[in-house]
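User: These chains co-purify. Model them together.
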Amino acid sequence: MNVTLRQLRVFEAVGRLKSYTRAAEELYLSQPGVSMQIKQLESNLGIALFEQLGKKIFLTEAGHELYQASRIVDNQLDETEQILEDLKGVRRGRLMIAVASTANYFAPRLLAVFSARHEAVTVNLDVTNREGLISHLEANDSDMVIMGLPPQKLELEAEAFMENPLVVIAPPDHALAGKKAITIQRLQEETFIMREPGSGTRIAMERFFAEKRAQLTTAMEMSSNEAIKQAVQAGLGLGIVSLHTLELELEMQRLVVLDVESFPILRHWYIVQRKGKRLSPVARAFKDFVLEESGKILQYPLLRT
Amino acid sequence: MNVTLRQLRVFEAVGRLKSYTRAAEELYLSQPGVSMQIKQLESNLGIALFEQLGKKIFLTEAGHELYQASRIVDNQLDETEQILEDLKGVRRGRLMIAVASTANYFAPRLLAVFSARHEAVTVNLDVTNREGLISHLEANDSDMVIMGLPPQKLELEAEAFMENPLVVIAPPDHALAGKKAITIQRLQEETFIMREPGSGTRIAMERFFAEKRAQLTTAMEMSSNEAIKQAVQAGLGLGIVSLHTLELELEMQRLVVLDVESFPILRHWYIVQRKGKRLSPVARAFKDFVLEESGKILQYPLLRT
DNA sequence: TGAAACGATAAGTAAATACTTATGGTTATA
DNA sequence: TATAACCATAAGTATTTACTTATCGTTTCA
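Assistant: Joint model of the four components:
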C-alpha cells in the first residue's frame, strides 16, 4: 500500500466533514491541496473513495472501509504517542529488577515504596541466584540488578548503597550464645551450615576465613538462607548469613547472633548494570531512589544481641 | 506525530530482525539508509527506540510500545487493502437495494439468486413505499431502486426490465368470475378496493381509467396489496393489483383474475438510480443480472384464468 | 591481535512531495 | 437567471525525502 499518513489524515478530514473545502480550512490548506491528496490516494488504491452527486459528496463503500481504517490507525498512533510521552517522564513505565535471593528480604520493601510513589509504573521483580543474575546482565533484560558481589568478568557499573553485614547465627540455647568476643579459633570447633559454592555469601565467607587462616567444618550445604536458618534452629550447626535475613527470627528469639571477633563481615549491597547502559527515566528514578533513600527505609535490626 | 509509514515499516523490520544490517537486506536498502530512518524516527518521537550494548541491539521499552503499534497499523492497512482489493471486483461488497412494496413479491427471489452467486456480498433490502424510495434516491443511500413508476422530478436513469401487468381481481364466487371479455362499462357497476393516492399502482390505474373515460367507485382505500387481497377475498369489492402479487392466491384459488377488455394494464418494473451515479462493481453486476436474467427467474402465473 | 561484523556519520543527489495561485466547469439557491 | 458554493485541473516551485557511496569507530571472536 503506497499510501502516506498525510493522505489518510486528509482523507479522514474530508470523510468526516463531507467537504473538500471545509477539510482544507481545518487543515490550513488550499482546497486544491486537498483535492490532490485525495486524488493521489484514490490512484494509489486504485479505487474511488468519494462519489460526487451534484454539490454533495458521499463516501463510496471503499471510502467507508478506508475511513474506518484511517480512524483506527490514527487512534493507534495517538495512543502510542501518549504512551511514549509518558515514558519520557517517570509517570509510566516498566521497571525490571533482578535481585539476589538474599536481597529478597529487603528488596520488596524498596519496590513497594517506589511503586506507591509511581502508580503507573509496572514493577517486575525476579528473585534468583547468582547465576540467574549474571544471565540477566548478559541478556540485558533487566534494568538493573541488586546483588552483594558483582562478578568481575562482565563490564559492569556497580554502586554500593547499603551495608550488608554477615553474622554468625546460632540457636538461643547454644553454648556460645551470649558469650562475648568469641574467637575465630573457637569457631573452628563448631560445624557450619553453608550456602552452596558459587553463592555470593559463600564466596565472601571463604575469602574471609582464608584471610584469617582459619578452616571451618562444613556440616551441610543448603541452597537458600531460609534452609540454613531452619537447620541452625534445629541445632544442626552454626550458620553465617546476612543480617538482613534475620529480622523475624531475632525478634521471635528463634536465633541469636554470636559476638565473634572481626564480625560482622562487612560487605555491601550493590546496584549493578551493564557498562554503558542507558537507563529509562523510570530506571534512573529507581536507582536514585535506592541510592538516596534505602537507608531510611531499611532499618535493619541492631547488632546488639 | 510527525512519523511516516516508511519509518514505521523500517522500524518494524529492524525491531523484528534485531539488526540494522539484516533489515537493510530485507528492505533492499543500504545499511545507512536504515540507520537514518531510525534516527529520524527517534528524533521525531523524541525518545530512543533501540539500545545498543556491544554488538547487539535491544528494543527499549518505548521501542516495544512502538513495535506493537506499528504491527497493528501495518495489519490494519494490509487488511483494508485486501478489502479494497475485493471491492474492486464483485467478490465482496454491500448491495443496498430499495424496492417498492409491490416488488416485494419478486425482489427477494432475485436477491436470493444473486446472493447465492456472490457469497461474500452483503445484501441489504429496504421495502418501502413510493415516498421512501424517493428519499432513498435523494439521499443517495441505496445503490439502486426498483419501482414501477419512476418520478419525473429528479434526474434519474430508469431502465425497464420486466413487465408489470395490473389485473382486476375478484373472489372466485363473484358474478363476473369466468366471464369472457368483460367491458369496462360493466366494471363501473362494481365497487373497488384501491391503494392509497400517491401509490404507483393507484396512479397508473387512475391514468388508465381517465384515458378510457371511465369512473370507478371506490369502496375503500388500503395501503398495502396484502390488505386489498384480503378485502377482495372477503367480498368487499374488486381490486386492481400487480399480477406479481397473486401467485399464491391464484394457485389456492382464493382469488381469480377477471378477463376485462384492454386488461391487463401493461406497465413495467424499472431499475432506477440517480443520473451520473457511479455504480460499484457489485451494483453493476446486480443491475446486469436483473436486466438479463430476471425473466428466467421470475416466471409469473399465466394470465389464463 | 587482527579480521570480520556492526552501526554511525558525512556528503551528495535524483526524485517526489506537498504545496501554492489561477482558473474553469457544475450545481444549487435566492 | 445570476450568483455563490463547490470541486477539478493546470502550472509552477521550494522543500523534503529517501536514498546512495565512502569512510570511521567499536566490538566480538577466532
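The first helix of chain A runs from residue 5 to 17.
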